[in-house]
């Protein structure tokens, strides 16, 4: 729901409503239903609204408190807003709308910064305290809703998407080369950096006060109010009780997130996560619309021949009684979507994303809210082969080394110096191992068992991999004017998932731990056989909602058969973008190394689909945001740069 943008001139210069409106217009796709602007001396706020809860004008933003002291711009959905509203009414607050925005505002007036700990939902918001000349920024626990910040001179810029900054007269876009090194190591960012130099991701689970009167900026540091804490209980309880409680919490989470004044649909792949959500939602919403994207596999080979899950989704739709809609992607659909996808996504992140772009496009034809299964894997152990990989260690540093080696997923380490050689010493000077280790913060003291190492891996992926997935879900949904909700990240459900014994998620921990590393002969097949589990307690709980074969099926990611397409139907596109003399990426990456790595894939010697996807993304990013100055490559009129 919605998009926000604004800026604060710390030196006291008057802020411009024209600039704030232009910033909000850059993200108009996030809120096609309404717009608003507010200024107070050196502060300007802009907002675009996607009307979901209380679609009347009473929910207009920016929204001001009754006494005129506070004004809020907010993006998200607070699912427990009716409970909070009842508490606030009991203490004397009066409401003029039925929106969760007004509940958030009244809650802030009553509880101050502590309001964030009472919110069960997804949110990013800014509140201006006119009397104290203080700005308050906050983001939800998990980072479902994006928020970016940027310092330009004496101005602090903030917005739901980076492209809003392009409408500010002091913003100039350059590439952050250290972020590029980070991306081509992990296909992700483990710091707050982005490819936009000086633009940072406001951290999930944090809030921050920005005090205009405190010129030393001593109180500007963001405060963490929540963090993941996966923990092994001292005593493993009754498995049946875990299953029953998980059943109750999943149903409660889905039903909470059905609150809306517009129609809600659900993505439906062939897996247990989206299947469970659709099954529970269909019981509450007759004729629930479900959406599936499949792939043309006529040229696929190897593991990719199983990537199309339409038949499983169709069967589940039949069982649940949903109104099913499907789209089939072909090789050419990637290049057709690449430019608008990069403009909307802004940050190339984990894995593929263009199938999500088309899934959101399909859903947007029928509804304004759609439910997705993100978070199920991260909370319940959906990637067992990764956790098992790092459960036998000498100590924490050994664990970090092993897991770090695994997550350097893009390019073999021996080739990285050649690849990054145009960056000079920078490529060698970025301490990637420390960046990786810093994710764990103070958790290293808790390592005393294989279960503890698994919980560390769950923590790591919830803090790094999941935010990338959530960013893709949010931005590519908002690209088509729809809000994506993720019931597996309900507060009560997450708290319960973090308290579960590892043995309820992984079934072969003891056997994998006991595999003899010195055993002669190949161990790959034995390892694979022992790590085909994961999400065991979730499978048990959801077996009463989804077909049995779905509950038992192994993990299948949402991926197109690009390894085949890149060396088949899409080979001309790859060669045009990455093998030509004028590719912009060669200012930052070594031409010969890139073309050798790409050539290895095109000739069938290696599978480098992740690298090729990332190279294509960054090449397009340079075209759109550096050469194209962030102008929308779609069919909407270009936004005129505002001036003070």
What does this structure look like?
This protein is of the alpha+beta class. The chain has three domains: 3-173 and 194-224, Aminohydrolase, N-terminal nucleophile (Ntn) domain (Glutamine Phosphoribosylpyrophosphate, subunit 1, domain 1, 4-Layer Sandwich), CATH 3.60.20.10; 239-382 and 447-552, 3-Layer(aba) Sandwich (Rossmann fold), CATH 3.40.50; 568-627, no CATH class. 39% of the residues lie in helices and 14% in strands. It is built from 26 helices and 17 strands. The strands form three sheets. It has a six-stranded antiparallel β-sheet, with helices on one face. Helix 7 links the parallel strand 14 (289-295) and strand 15 (323-329). Helix 5 (239-256) packs antiparallel against helix 18 (491-499) and helix 8 (332-345) crosses helix 9. The longest helix has 19 residues, at 609-627. The radius of gyration is 24 Å and the shape is globular. Mean pLDDT is 89; it is low at 635-644.
Which value, in Å, is the CA radius of gyration?
Answer: 24 Å
Number of strands: 17
CATH level 3 topology of the largest domain: Rossmann fold
Enumerate how many helices there are, as a single number.
26
Looking at this protein, list some descriptive labels.
single chain, 644 residues, alpha+beta, Glutamine Phosphoribosylpyrophosphate, subunit 1, domain 1, 3 domains, 6-stranded antiparallel beta sheet, 14% strand, globular
What's a concise summary of this model?
The protein is of the alpha+beta class and 644 residues long. Helix 7 (310-320) links the parallel strand 14 (289-295) and strand 15 (323-329).
